[in-house]
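Researcher: Quick sanity check before group meeting.
Model: Go ahead. Protein one:
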Amino acid sequence: MAEHEWMNEVRALVGKEYGRVYAWDPVNAPMIRQWCEIMEVTNPVYTDEAAAAASVHGALVSPPTMLQPWCEPGLYMNNYPPGSTDENPYESLKLIEAQGYASVVAVNSELEFDRYVRMGEKLYYTTRLDSISEEKVTALGTGYFVTLVMTYCAQAAGNDGADEEVGRLLFRVFKFRPAKVHTKEDAAAAEKPKTPARPAPGMSDDTRFFWEGAKAGKLLIQRCKSCGSLRHPPGPVCPSCHSFEWDTVTASGRGTVYSFVVMHYPEVPPFEYPNPVALVELEEGTRLVAQLVGVKPEEVTIGQAVQVEFNTFEGDLVLPQFRPLASA
């Protein structure tokens, strides 16, 4: 199909490099330890100096998947360290949106690592608008696939060295105009605002029991039949004793907010933003990630008491969510 004239301005941005966004802190052991605790990662090369020294790394290193978190703004949106760029790497999305392509859906994200980063290294990333597709017609509607690539680098220790690239993050979204209606009945239905369907969680043989339990109003946690350890997310083998035998326990559904994030952007339907998501520590001792409901994002606190509730979406999708309990 013929290109819109207004796309010339948008396509002129392809290849544009947006300035540096710095990490608030050098790579450090306390943040790695906290991240490993939250994610339940036990590899000693991240937290045990003696084990790391005896490994191929020779010293403590950061988990590769911490690459993106090192350069995050923190609790407040766009709160980046001094010296970071104030350019908006999403300006192409804004230009496309101004032409009536107001909907957006995340398509995929790919994180690549060149090497482990080490204690004391100072990181930053730059953003490049990698590509914008031709106008595409999909079941969702008509629009453009926009791909951004964030390149992460470690700053050289001295004036003579060069900064070293350590990884990349590819982030792609589809910016689109919803599909047009074709009949009078469709047009009448379109006059009523529609809530996009909430995506169903991925389900496998290892996790099926959890989602079936949710449909029955039960919060089921996997338990090793050999050592009694609880684990979540579910998996085929116990990380503690390596047994393949397991059963489940029905959790009380009570717990506390161990940690949380508030999602702001990109805004993906049908979720409402800001969107609080918590790491909940259950009474039984294990933790799980779930959306918080019935609370304003600014009122969420660490240690807050919460209770599970099972909410139904789109007819048969049942999800466990957590609601803060009233203070005694």
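Researcher: Fine. The other one?
Model: Protein two, sequence then structure:
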Amino acid sequence: MKKIITTPNAPAPIGPYNQATLSGNTLFTSGQIAIDPKTGELFKGSISEETKLVMTNLKAVVEAAGMTMEHIVKTSIFISDMENFGAINAVYGEYFDEATAPARETVEVANLPKYVNVEISCIAVK
């Protein structure tokens, strides 16, 4: 059985999906982008600031499921320009201990929702 996870501390879905689903002890999050959850507005700023808001939103969803960032076992990062990888990776690294960081892939894509620069999702296990 699955449980729907929602929090006002992350952007509301903009389509027919939820912020996350919990199945047993495993959490599957939807991709998070740089939308301010308080205003619903798309963030405009540097790639580092955009990534920080994405990670803050992701963390809020994970915490709404009663987990921490340490429970994340896998992330998927989608970026619009591989030239931004270094800046994105630097901010991403602030949220994990390198020795226990999750598995991940980083993929450059042609476009992302609302034409953002970065989208990140994760799988977490408690």
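Researcher: One line on it for the slide.
Model: Residues 18 and 106 are 23 Å apart (CA to CA).
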